[in-house]
Amino acid sequence: MDVFATAVPALGEAWALILQPVVLGYLVLGVVMGLAVGVFPGLGGIAGLSLLLPFMFGMDPVLGLALMVGMVAVVPTSDTFASVLMGIPGSSASQATVLDGFPLAKKGQAARALSAAFTSSLFGGLVGALFLTMFIMVARPLVLAFGLPEMLMISILGLSMVAVLAGRVALKGLAAAGLGMLIGTIGEADAGGSLRMATYDIPYLTDGLQLVIVGLGIFALPEIVSLLRQDSSIAKDATLGAGWSQGVRDWVANKWLSVRCSLIGVIVGVIPGLGGSVVDWIAYGHAVQTTKDKSNFGKGEIRGVIGPESSNNAKEGGGLVPTLLFGIPGSGSMAIFIGALALLGSGDIEVGPNMLRDNLDITYSIVWLLALANVVGTVLCIAASGGIAKLTTIRFTYLAPFLFMLISFAAFQSGQNFEDILALFAIGLIGIFLRRFDWSRPAFLIGFVLSNPVEKFSNQAFQIASFRFRNSFSAGVDYLFSPIVIVLLIVTVVSVFLGLRQAKSIMAEGDVQSGSKRAPLIFLLVVMGYVIAALVNASLIPNYNMTDKIVPLVVGGITLTALVILLVQMILRAERDVIFADKEVSGEDADAPYGLWGTLAWFAGLIAATYVVGFILALAGFLVTFLRIRAQASWPKTLILAASGIALMCVMAGALNRDFPPGLLQHAANLPPTERMRWNRQPFPMYSCVAALRAAPISTAPICLLIARRWPRF
Hints:
By secondary structure, this protein is mainly α. Helices cover about 70% and strands about 0% of the residues. The protein folds into 2 domains: about 1-435, no CATH class; about 595-710, no CATH class.
C-alpha cells in the first residue's frame, strides 16, 4: 500500500505538469523533429538527440524532457519510411522491417505496409509506457536498496551484454566497447586528477571528449558520408498505393502477434545494451516461427512488418527502465538521454535511485510524455506519408551540406571551442572505419558512456570495502557480495554464455561481405597501437594515485587480449571469413561513384575555412562551392539554398542564444570575441552578421541585414 500511496500522487502531479500548453507544444516539436530525423537512413535517435544536446543547457526540465521524449518516441516509427519506401534500414532497429516491407512497396502496397507498421508502433509504444509505469511502482523499493557494489555490477552487466551481443564476431564487440571506454577515460581523472592520454600542452584534452561529439561522430557523420558518396536520391519512386485501411485490418487480425512482440521488445529493452540491433531480429524470428506458411516471408508477408515494428517502439519503454532506475543506458539513444538529463535546469536531476527518491513526479512525466508522443507521432506519420515519400526523391547531395552545417554547429556548442569541430572529424573517422569493418558502433558508444560510472563506482566501492575489510573479513565480503550482486553476477555470466552462442546471427552493421585481409588488418593494428599507448600511459601514473590507473589498465588489458586473439585469427583464417568484413568490397559503398576521402575533403574544407574566417563566412563559401560544383546546381538555385542555410543558422543561433566558431579574420578585423561572449550578456554573436556584411558573398548580406532590422536584439 505504501507503494501506491507514493506513486499515485506522483502520477497525478506528472499529468498536471505535462498538460500545460507549452509542454504539449514542445512535445509536438520534438515529434516533428524526430519525424524529420527518422526519415533519413542511419541518423536515428542517437544522432537526433545529439543535435538536441547543446540546447538542453539550463532548459526547464519538463520542457526539455518533452522535446527529447517526443523525438525518442517517434524515431522508431518514422524510420519505417526508409525501410519500406527505400529498402534501406532507417536505423539498426528497422533492419528486419526491410525484408517484407520493401517487397510490399514494390508490389504497390506501401500504404498497407506503412499503415500496419504505424499501428503496430503505436500499440508497442503504449505497451512500453504501461510497463514502465507498473515497473517503477513495483521496483522503486528495490532500486532504492541498490548501493555502490550493485551499481558497479549492473554497469558490468550492461557492458558485457553490449560487447557480446553486438556483432557476428563477438571479440569485435568486446574490443569496440573497450576502445570506447578507453576513449572515455581521456583527460583528468575524477579521483586523483591524473592525466590519461592528455597533456596540459593541449588543454582541450584535459576535460575529455563530450558525449555530443562522440554521438555525432560515431553515428551521424559516417551515414551522411556514405549516402553522399552514392550521389543519388534516397528513393526512386514516391508512390504509396492504396491500402491504409487494409493495414489496420492486418494488425487487428494479428493483434496477438503484436502483443507478444511488444513484450519481447520490453524485455529486450530492459536489458542494458541490447537495444534495437537485436530486438527486431528476435521479433521477426518469432513471427516466422509462429506462422504456419513460412514461404511468403521475404517476399511481402505482412506479419514480417507487424512483429518487428511492435517490438521497436515497445523497447523504448523498456529501455527507460535501466536508464531511469539505475542510470545504465538501455541503448545508444538512452546513453545520449542520460547526458541530456544532467544538463536540464540547474543540473540537479540525476538518473538512478536518487531520481526515484527526489524526482518521482519528473520520472512519471517521462512515462506520460512517452505515451502521448507515440499517439502524436503515429498521427503525424500517417498525415505526412505522402509528402515524405516525395522528399525521398530529392538528391541527397542537396541535403548533405545542410547536415554538415548542423552537426558542426551542434558540436561547437558542447564546449564552445574550435577543437570541438576537430574532435568531431576525428571521432567521425573512427565511426566510418568501425562501420566499414563491421565493428559495433553501439558497443563503442555505450562503452564510452559507461566508462565514467564504472570508474566512479569501482573506486568508491573499493574504498568502502577496504574500510570494511579492516574491521573484519566477513564484513567486507558481505558488503561486496550482497544477494543482489550475486544475482547480477549470475545473470552476467548467463548472458555472456548465451550471447556467445547467438553472436554469429547478429549483424550490427548489416550483412557486410568479406574482402581482402589488408584493410581490416591495418585497422586492427591501428586500434591495437592506441590501446597499447593507453596502457603505457596509465602505467606511468604514480602508484599513490592507483585509483586513477586501475580502470584504464584493466580495460586496456582486456581489450588488448581481445585484439591479440583477433590478430591471430586474421593471420590463420581465409580471406572470405566474416572476420574480414569490409563494406568497400561489395554493396552500396563499394559501388559508390565518389570515394571516401574526396567526400570527407568537403567537410575538412569547411573546418579549415572556419579556422581562418569563422563559421558563417566559411559556411557561405562552403554552401556556394558545394552546391555549384558537387551538386552542379544552377546559380539561382545555389544562391537561394546558400542564403537559406545562412538564414537558418542566424535564426537558430539568435533564438537559442548560441555562438558561432570564430576565426583568425575576427582578430584581424577587430571584431568582437565571439567565443568569449556569454549568453546572458550578448545573446547573439553579432560578429557573424557584421562579418557577412563586410566580406561575405552578396547573397548572404541582405539576409543578415534583414535579420538585424527585423530583430534589433540581435
